[in-house]
Amino acid sequence: MLPEFKIAQLRHFVWVAELKGFHAAAEKAHRTQPAISLSIRDLETKLGEALFEKRNAKTAKTDLTPFGQLFLPKARELIAHHDRIAEDMTLLSEHKKGHLRLASVPSIASRVLPELLLRFVADSPDLHISFFDDNSAAVLRMVENEQVDFGIASLFHEEEHSDKSFIPIWEDQVGVVCPQDHPLADKAGVHWKELRQHRLISNGTSALLEDSEARPLLGHSQFYISNMISLIAMLEAGFGITTLPWYAFPKESSTLSFVPLTNPTILRHTGIVKLGNKSLTPPAQALVDFILANSAQ
């Protein structure tokens, strides 16, 4: 039967060899000298060979046996391998190493996540992150297909997603987005029926209207644009108007206005979506915990 080495015993052996004495090794290990001697004797028993020559009482000099000289580089190699694995797993458990994959709706991806992610990775230079942004339906598909560790999205019709867990974090109101010179731009609020008089563009967030009085607007839309950059460009060009949650509105825009939809009032809840029967990797769980601890409405 092969001997089973204890890392502590290997360290004691290397320290005695390098420091040329049991007393110095004991000080380094914060142990008593008899404890170090016992550790070495146990290691020698496992190996079936002496590691050190019999000590000279006059000089207290500690010399390796020929077998000990051969075993020393092997012991160093075992310790280094152990320490590399221990360090890797510690870094992984502390979310400082590994590969994290997440997906988010564009509104949260652009308005909220940059600052959060910058702070999260500040002390984790070896953590790799793959980030995808798309509408809620696409984010949910990526979660289902395990392409990402978790997603940030709105969970429409929660009863249809019994395989997922949802933690709501952000809440925003749906409004009308239009050019600043549009007839609706100066209103304090708008009724959904008023939108019928204008060219309406639907988008990935239009599903928020489905379970409200404003549902007929979905059939009224002449155009559908899925990409947020293209949608904003069309709005700025005066092509039409659209409905968007507040976080999806480009806050730096100098050409567009956001007018709350007040009849009906529609709120969007966005949060963490993950598979309900699977644990997250340590980096992913750490990011979820970080988002929960640092996200205030």
Automatic annotation (TrEMBL):
Residues 5-62 form the HTH lysR-type domain. GO terms for cellular component: cytosol. This is LysR family transcriptional regulator. It holds the Pfam family LysR_substrate. InterPro entries: HTH-type_LysR_regulators, LysR_HTH_N, LysR_subst-bd, WH-like_DNA-bd_sf, WH_DNA-bd_sf. Keywords: DNA-binding, Transcription, Transcription regulation. Belongs to the LysR transcriptional regulatory family. PANTHER family: HTH-TYPE TRANSCRIPTIONAL REGULATOR YBHD, NITROGEN ASSIMILATION TRANSCRIPTIONAL ACTIVATOR-RELATED. GO terms for molecular function: DNA binding; DNA-binding transcription factor activity.
